[in-house]
Amino acid sequence: MKTTLHKAGTRGHADHGWLNSYHTFSFANYYDPERVQFGALRVLNDDTVAPGKGFGLHPHDNMEIISIPLEGDLEHQDNMGNKKIIRQGDVQVMSAGTGIFHSEYNHNKDRKVKFLQIWIFPREKNVAPRYAQVTITALEKNNEFTRVVSPDPESQGAWIHQDAWMHIGSFSKSSATAYKIKKAGNGIYIFVLEGKISAGEQELDQRDGYGIWDTAGIELIARTDARVLLMEIPMQYQ
Fold first, then answer.
1. What is the CATH code for 138-234?
2. Is the whole model's pTM more than 0.85, yes or no?
């Protein structure tokens, strides 16, 4: 088994006043040649946006973009005619494909919005742009991972153009769970949203990231009450 550890305090950081952003991987003015991506996982940004502020209209192409609000409400608008509010408990997916323009704003004027922005390279380029949004709150069960993103349009959660799976789970202290790789050659990237866990022999704190590959799976133990994002990612892609 091979591993890579990204402690929360080692992430790139940019504070623009209206936006406070932590970058697990190289992004914008933060560049570390050892931390460009994890397989097909290119971006994992931990963003806080001030009340009423946000990202103006801007383009993307040939990327699967997933947004997960952790607190507050995010307002999305794009050139496909979508105008949506993404709330805590929702997951948003955009397949940028041949090209898309969109904006993201804090929907509220009186409180911050915190969300994860995740980019994954697709397995096929120049697909038709697509928008999807799902609510996962009712699907979640304590001490289990809930699948929120997969390659299968007929499966639970949202789907993307890549052989990747994303899971979110809340775990009580001392609870244990095991995750087995779904596709040979994929790796696992774990991001601790809240609390402390053990992933195999590795202790992880809040906002730590831990990548493993050349393995069939991993066992997780909650050292405190914890909430975890687990992503199964192709290590090789076109």
1. 2.60.120.10
2. yes
